[in-house]
Amino acid sequence: MNTLLNSMLIELRRGTLTLAVLSRLQVPRYGYSLVQLLEQSGIAIDQSTLYPLLRRLEKQGLVTSSWDNSDSRPRKYYVLSEEGTSIFDQLKQEWLAHSGKLLHILNEEEHHGVD
Amino acid sequence: MGLIEVYIQEVTRRLPEKNRDDIARELKSTIEDMLPGEYSDENVETVLERLGSPAALAEGYRDRSRYLIGPRYFDAYISLLKMILPIAATISLIVLAAENIVGYDNNTSVLNMIILLIAEGIWGIIVVGMQVFFWLTVVFAIIERVYKSDDIKPLTPNLTEWKVEDLKHIPLISKQKAIPKYEVYGSLIWTAIWATVYFYADYLVGIYRSGSEGLVFITPTFNETVLIHYWPLILLLVGLEISLSIYKLIERQWTKKMAWFNAVLQTAASAGFIAIINNPKLFTPEFLAFMARVFQVSISDLLSWITIGGIIIFLASAAFVIFDGFRKAKI
After folding, report:
1. Chain B closest-CA separation from residue A50 CA (Å)
2. Which of A31, B22, B105, B162 has the fewest CB atoms lying closer than 10 Å?
């Protein structure tokens, strides 16, 4: 793929990735289940980005984590904290408003064309 | 099994000690999640391939990017480097010239000495350059680590945030007024050359005749003891010239003050020139006799021609340089 296009796409997706991850963490999930879930929704995520992202969100206090040792394989579960839930709601509102405006601009351009 | 452990080790060894265990545990459980129940070595390789380079993964886990000097300080670093390097190089050259004028040794031939000076000059610039580069880099690397900041807005060379106020202290430099850098360095080198020639005149300036072994020095033009006699005056002129060059380097354009400084320097140089050229013992008798024979004139006529001609040329060029300075300052 065109490298310029590729790097712009990565930049475009970077911000939305956090939002996608936060939206899936309303119930506790572990790393790989999150990858599968997002992939099922058509959101491809680089795993070397996701796992560090989860730890960063934890450090920022947006998610909490706990080890579940009951299964044969111990797994680290992440879930939104109270603060994370409130921030996620605000981000979601902002995103919906913003994408609405963007959609408007893009549609306008399609109808009238550019000079 | 072995590959997984090595992969985890390759990630965690790049991370701070306190996070290693937890990340290793999580990574192991993730890798096992990705593998089918019964797995082969090929399955492991595919999974590790998907996780990608351990260095990239470790980079993601680290909080701060690894910079020696980050974007916040880089601009200030480069500006200071550009400012200090040429000044340091010039000072090293001046020190070298001064050392050689003071402690000169007439056993070495002129050509050898010139080659030696050039070699020493180049070597000196390299050494000083490396020193400046090294210490400035160390200082900035320390600043980067001590004054950590998530802010990546570049700081000004004064290490403060940029303000509109800053613009008021920066002159807008017009093309006609500007003093190009090469002019400043050229004049510094010119100062070094004429001062060296002045103090070595009895080896350099004189009558040469081409012989079987190239040019042969026959007789010096000037009486070296007379030239040396004026050393405080020459030192003063050299000092004034270097000060003017540094002043030009800082201001980067002609100003009224600079034009006055330039006028004082040119006047002092003219006065000095007139005093020296009027000294009756300045030229060696051998030189005068030789020239009088060549031009078929009397020695006293020759002397007055040289004196009057020299003074006219010197004064005319000094007047032009003074006038040019004021003209540029006025633009």
Report:
1. 9
2. B105
